[in-house]
Amino acid sequence: MNNAENGRPMRGSKKKVLVTGGAGYIGSVVGAHLLRAGYEVTALDDLSNGYEEAVPDGAEFVHGRIQDVRHVLDSSFGAVLHFAAFAEVGESGRRPEKYWHNNVAGSLALIDAMREANVRTLVFSSTCAVYGEPASLPITEDTRTAPINPYGASKLAVDHMIASECGAHGLAAVSLRYFNVAGAFERYGERHSPESHLIPLILQVAQGNRDSILVYGDDYPTPDGTCVRDYIHVADLAEAHLSALGAAEAGRHLICNLGNGRGYSVREVIEAARTVTGRPIPMIITHRRSGDPAVLIASADRARHELGWEPRRSDLTGMMADAWRFVQDVAGPTTPPISADPTRTTT
């Protein structure tokens, strides 16, 4: 089997890993893949955004905050995969202190605990939000980082923190900068309360829990006038994390974008949902949002070269079908909170 299916084996003999944010969307999918690959998984999550039932069977669950990680981590662990972060762009602008306390101070507490416990391999869940509004496409890892919101700034701060830890103390680290994550894997999928991501919001309309989907602007310089984003299947994302464990090298901070290298417009995403669900899914065009780039598309050439990774589920309809199965069979019908803020379309 190739690296994309199983990932390279982690360097060293320890197969015990800590997954912070292990009850969340991406953390649960990665945890399930780790267990299949023979890892011993401990999931740490405070359940502020995650669900205990999303923790994969076979993983140990620890209910706790990332700031208290030193009570969990010891020298029996071989690596940490770090997903514990708040990730709402709009909220980060309204409550930046929440993002500095959790995303930045929490990550510092984790890195300190790793150093004290002599756990020297880290895979970090980063984001394309660190690039802000890029001057050219596709976005490579050498594109200038210029985040335009506290969420992206908090993730970039952690990347700088990791780089200094690698240089000073020999940490082996890989930061994976995601573009838009979509789809579901087995019983693990995407759900937030309140919901703010485009595909789950569209599927709430299909379920009858929301009257329509808002489209923020149809006058962008794109083929159909709506914003274009690069979507990656969550299972492809998980496979990249396993490969990253094997690619991590002491003293090196490797940064890789994860995306498919092509984009889908908001209209195309809505049309894919109509095709998959057989529902009409009304949409309402409203004004543009400040700071929304017209197009965000990744170059994942470095991930292909350094990780031996290749996205294998790039079809938008397939991603939508997996997400629709999840909301019907696993998440069930939900009534969105009245405070739901459908303003997030990028990871």
How many E strands?
A: 14
Contiguous uncertain segments of 5+ residues: 1-5, 334-347
Helix content: 25-40%
Number of helices: 10
Which strands sit side by side, in order, in the main sheet?
3-2-1-4-5-6-11
Shape: globular
User: Element order, helices and strands?
Assistant: HEHEEEHHEHEEHEEEHEEHEEHH
How big is the Rg? 19 Å
Structural class label: alpha/beta
Mean pLDDT: 91
Please characterize this protein's 3D structure.
With 347 residues, the protein is of the alpha/beta class. It contains 10 helices and 14 strands. The chain has helices at residues 3-6, 25-36, 89-94, 96-117, 150-169, 198-207, 234-247, 266-277, 301-307, 316-331; strands spanning 16-20, 40-45, 60-63, 79-82, 121-127, 172-178, 180-182, 213-216, 228-229, 231-233, 253-258, 264-265, 283-286, 295-296. The strands form 4 sheets. The chain has a 7-stranded parallel β-sheet with strand order 3-2-1-4-5-6-11, sandwiched between helices. It has a 3-stranded mixed β-sheet with strand order 12-9-14. Helix 4 runs parallel beside helix 5 (150-169). It is globular, with a radius of gyration of 19 Å. Mean pLDDT is 91; it is low at 1-5 and 334-347.
Write the layout of secondary structure elements.
Blueprint lengths: L2 H4 L9 E5 L4 H12 L3 E6 L14 E4 L15 E4 L6 H6 L1 H22 L3 E7 L22 H20 L2 E7 L1 E3 L15 H10 L5 E4 L11 E2 L1 E3 H14 L5 E6 L5 E2 H12 L5 E4 L8 E2 L4 H7 L8 H16 L16
Parallel strand pairs: 1-2, 1-4, 2-3, 4-5, 5-6, 6-11, 7-10, 8-13, 9-14
Antiparallel strand pairs: 9-12
Helix pairs in contact: 2-7, 4-5, 6-8, 6-10, 8-10
